[in-house]
Amino acid sequence: MVGVYNAALAPLRLVAAAWAFRHARGPRAEEWGERMARRLPALGRPGGVWIHGASVGEARIVRALARGLRERRPDLPLSVSAVSPTGRQQLPRAPDVDAAFFLPLDFAGFPTRILRAVAPGVLTLVETELWPNLLREAARLAIPVVLVNARLSASRMRWYRRLSALYAPLLRGVSRVGARSTEDAERFRELGVPPQATCVTGNIKYDLPAPAGTRALARRELAIAEERSVLVAGSTRPGEEQVLIESWRRLSAVRPGLLLVLAPRHPARFDEVERLIASAGLQPTRWSRRATPGDGRADALLLDELGVLERAYLAADVAFVGGTLVPVGGHNLLEPAAAGVPVLFGPHTSNVEDTATELLGAGAALRVRSAEEIASAVATLVREPARARAMGDAARRVVEANRGALDRTIEIVLAARRTPPGLT
Description:
Elements: H1 2-22, H2 29-35, E1 48-52, H3 56-72, E2 78-82, H4 85-90, E3 99-102, H5 110-118, E4 120-126, H6 132-140, E5 145-150, H7 154-162, H8 164-171, E6 176-179, H9 182-191, E7 198-200, H10 215-221, E8 230-236, H11 240-254, E9 259-264, H12 270-279, E10 284-286, E11 300-302, H13 309-315, E12 318-321, H14 334-338, E13 343-345, H15 353-361, E14 365-367, H16 371-383, H17 385-401, H18 405-416
Parallel strand pairs: 1-2, 1-4, 2-3, 4-5, 5-6, 6-7, 8-9, 8-12, 9-11, 10-11, 12-13, 13-14
């Protein structure tokens, strides 16, 4: 079936070659050299650990794993990779790792070039990075593959079932799957991973560092006056900003001065969201153009740089997590929880259902379905600061109670590692 997969990709390979030629001398020349497996890292030593995660969310896990592995085994070469440009920006750099790069496109032959250049003792794939040629060529070169923080939602599982003829033979060769939950582990076994190769390690995102500092410090950094009420909406998707702006309208009638902080999931939408804010009659300001970003004149602050959202959550009175009002499946609920902030999210949480269930059960979160429900929840929490503090404390306790996945994951990665024959 991999042959059929490669035949289907043949037209895309021609398009990619043309696109790489177009960018051969521009600012994206290095990126496309890596994506086409022409620009390869030179590590000098085989047998290390290569960690790959797709985008920004996975890059945080990559950083945590790299840091933990470096502390545990400073002698091992460490390589890290991502697919998206934003994920690539968030990867750790030297001296924390020995190489960071874009994952080459999954065309036949490309994974072999990068695998021979990196010569890892173990290839570590974060969450669901199941690239057929990468898996097949790693197996052919006798490189162990470990899936970490592995997850499969029910909706994604249906897609993989339809492609079981392609994936089942590839997954049978995976050395180890460290799943986030028992349900995830069972789904991977159903797809073809041998039962003895699966285990439940938990969710590494619980082990990510909590934001440093205090609410007061974060507010000073963001130039938000202490008396302002702040709703931070992180990782928002198309269709959600309109609902949040309508929530602000409802809230401003009863809570003048409320600051709406929006952090769209994708940087390509920053200008679009700014126009949306302005067209709704709100006074926007952008973090990148800041003089006093959260001052009293602004109704909405647009976070248009990566790495600021964590500080904004710490400065918030209430947080909303995007990808949940629209059928995306949800983004990271643990960032605001670790900041000790009450968490709101919509009905679509298939990607983060275990975390959503824990937060709801602990009284740390509320599920909202409309602008009216968001406005009502925020108004209540702002009006009752003791209740908001209790929810924030409960959210932080959920995070602390579930730590330990990082250490368990590092153990299975190191246990699977070996120097493959033919790559030394």
